[in-house]
User: Fold these one by one.
Assistant:
Number 1:
Amino acid sequence: MQTIIEPFRIKMVEPVKLTTREERAALIHAAHYNPFLLRAEDVIIDLLTDSGTSAMSADAWAALMRGDESYAGSRSWYRFRDTVQEIFGFSQVIPTHQGRAAEHILFGITVQPGFIVPNNTHFDTTRANIEYRGGKAIDLPCPEATDLVSDYPFKGNMDIEALDALVRLEGREKIPLIMVTVTNNSAGGQPVSMENIRAISRIAREAGIPFYIDACRFAENAHFIKRREPAFRNRPTVEIAREMFSYADGCTMSAKKDAFANIGGFLCTNDAELAQRERNILILSEGFPTYGGLAGRDLDAIAVGLREVLDEDYLDYRLLSTRYVARHLHDAGIPVIMPAGGHAVYVDARRFLPHIPPLSYPAQALAVELFIEAGIRAVEIGTVMFGADPQTGEERPARNDLVRLAIPRRVYTQSHMDYVLEAIGLVWQRREQIRGMRILRAPQYLRHFTAEFDWLGPAAV
Ligand code: F0G
């Protein structure tokens, strides 16, 4: 069968409020042309993030009811810890309220001013937590990542030669750990191959440097390995996941992604002494070590989600449904990053709107037009997000200007995706009339969340 079906049935629904084009034009104007400033109820299809927005299963909701809210040593904690140990294989498990809390604790202990942390590409909170400690976050994406259209299967990989050179130059005195992000969110949700993970691990071990995995989308990455790396074709995805982690010394995880949870995360290591220091910080900021920043019921929901996410029928559906969106856009001549990533489709706004220069924010203009056309909320990843020099405030073009359509897990159906495709097609037809934008007001840091915009010249709506 060619038709992709969702491998689940729907037994509870959330209404979506439909709006007219005129209403949406007024709503986005009132939100100063920044989709972050919209009310969620005014959005028809919300593709702002895949984080914390997944649909939980009947089993996960049932597990919430089993939650044991004891302050110390709850049953929920043991179910959570055992599941994490079984899949990730690390001896020490530290629950946190979300991924960035795990990062904050890890880097708070390991990074000192002047230290360097390499990664294939740091996610923005990871980078910020390293820089907050006075460290330097260095991105080492593989050279293939810069070609947005080639069909290279593992564009999330790290540049092994560059890593080797950096490790030789700086050594373990300056590099407290090496990290790899699976899948590589900031580089299009592209996967990292097992071969690449092994190579990173080898370099790290030879240099005596701990190797960590940012594991947010570990199940999607493991399934990409199964489908794209020939040696793994016949291996169960859960075993592939275990093998990935077997090369690492620890991980950070946001359970808001590949655990279907609305909140939660954890930090793992095999180093009992380090874990003790991490727990001391955990108690200050998150909570007692058997609950971290979470309720017992959250721990139970995560334990169920971590097992469910490794279901191969689900993962086939997940990767195919994302690919369906990217393929259809690509076949219609609409510029998207190819091949599709796991959790999101990235439209290349610079090629979509070649008449709008980067400093007039083409991806912001496109995100606004998607909302006006069809009530779709997406996020700009480009010159608005990365274009201001934090020291001087000077504007410069970011590496790319992309619109990310992040797809929440098990939330939208194929017909919702067809609606998204039709909407993008309609905006594509009138692309030449779309104007660039300017920033009216913006804070110094993380300006994309709250900046206010207006059209350059008369609006195209
Ligand atoms: N690492 C990666 C690769 C992420 O994508 C995220 C979050 C985090 C760490 C932080 O986890 O949100 O639980 O604190 N990414 C979300 C996104 C916000 O929209 O891509 P968190």
Number 2:
Amino acid sequence: MTKYVKIISSGSYLPKNILTNKELESRVDTSDEWITERTGIKERRVADENETSVDLAYKASLDAIAKSNINKNDIGAIFLATCTPERKFPSSAVLLQNKLNIKNAFSFDINAACTGFVYALDVAKKYIESGQMKYALVVGTEKITSLLDWTDRNTCVLFGDGAGAMIIAASDEPGIISSTIGSDGSYKDLLTVNTDLEYIEMKGSDVFKTAVNTLGKLAKHTLEINSIEQGELDWLVPHQANERIILAIAKKINLSKDKIIITVSKHGNTSAASIPLAFDTANSKNTFKSGDMIMLEAFGAGFTWGSVLMKY
Ligand code: ACO
């Protein structure tokens, strides 16, 4: 059994096309002012028509692998979180494995909507702890704009495409201290993709309230079960759906804005990609210092939720 599991590198990729709030004003009855005030979003990225979520994952994974200094064939598993897979099957994880030409790994997809990356990290941590492998590639990737009804102002202004990845490894020191995941399928209809039309439908304010309540309790619980005082937390890397949700949760654990990684203004809600994208945005600026206490937390369709507490 391995004692600890540590993140050794992160990577990310954003498609080059930027869609601004101003441009959305010409598509639906909305305004830059409304979107900025209600969500904090200013722009988002949109993948090309022929660019898939696996293409985005591939570029983010190459970035993470290059920064890790490990041999890619030492990766024992690929855990890929997405709700916008390239094909119904085979999984996007095996398509990614093939593109990366990784030979000695097993690979599978995890779908927990916006919580997908936290679920994937939880699973990867447990595999590494079991001693079955030393290194795993954990990826969150979405081409979520492919699920948007561009005539529905309630949803089309909120989402963007992108991918983030991490290499995690067995370690003699912490590392991930704890991870918690949960779900409640009775909320299945509040945020869903209708199987006939294949568009996102959302009861926005119900999702908002439940997200704030659930994540507020989860963040407190995560600190409590690990005997960490609120003041000991150095960074919160939350799912980036709405800046108001992020700040409401931070308030519940007395965390000031300068300790929160906020990328929603530039990325929009990239679903399962949002946490690794936000993490890598900060990590590539050397924001995190060795020993920093970092919490990741996410909430998504299902509902699903999860948190990870780690020492960097
Ligand atoms: N531009 C202008 N007006 C708009 C827009 C828009 N883009 N969208 C909605 N409105 C209008 C509504 O029609 C409504 O008008 P009405 O009062 O005349 O009916 C008004 O604005 C207020 O709408 P609300 O939905 O009450 O606005 P709210 O402040 O709740 O903000 C939002 C809406 C941004 C969607 C918010 O509820 C939210 O962020 N919800 C949570 C989203 C989320 O966290 N998703 C998580 C996971 S996503 C996943 O798992 C894939």
